[in-house]
Design goal:
The chain is of the alpha+beta class and about 140 residues long. The chain has two domains: about 80 residues, no CATH class; about 50 residues, no CATH class. It has one helix and five strands. The strands form two sheets. It has a three-stranded antiparallel β-sheet, with no helix packed on it. Strands 3-4 form a two-stranded antiparallel sheet. The two termini are about 25 Å apart. About 0% of the residues are buried.
Length: about 140
Amino acid sequence: MAWPDLRPPGTKGIKRNLQGDVMSVHGIFNYQSPFISRTLVRNGKLYTNRDLRGSDDKIYGADWTATEAIVRNARLEEPFTLDVQGFSLHKESTAMSYNEFFQEDVILKKYHAEVAEVMKRLTGARLGGFQVDFG
């Protein structure tokens, strides 16, 4: 199956505030249908092949669902808190290189450990981490 076609949304527009900051963007987003099995790791059912230049071939096992939506710039909203909204936004750096984000084993070991440490620091939690099912 090919990657989905790019289509313009029914309502065009990028909305900006008086300072020129992007407030929202109207667009069409291609998501996997609810019938595709979800996983954090490779399962052989949904994949693409990448060449040595980093370009992706066609995608296998995809079932695209086009969804029109407005995306708002949350960083311009009132501060979100874990206690009220259930999440918060923070700028954090990473020790990961750009290329490491294409290496599943590095993401699962190095990046997930970094994120767990950030979560512990920001929430005061003593334990933190991710449970990944490789089955």
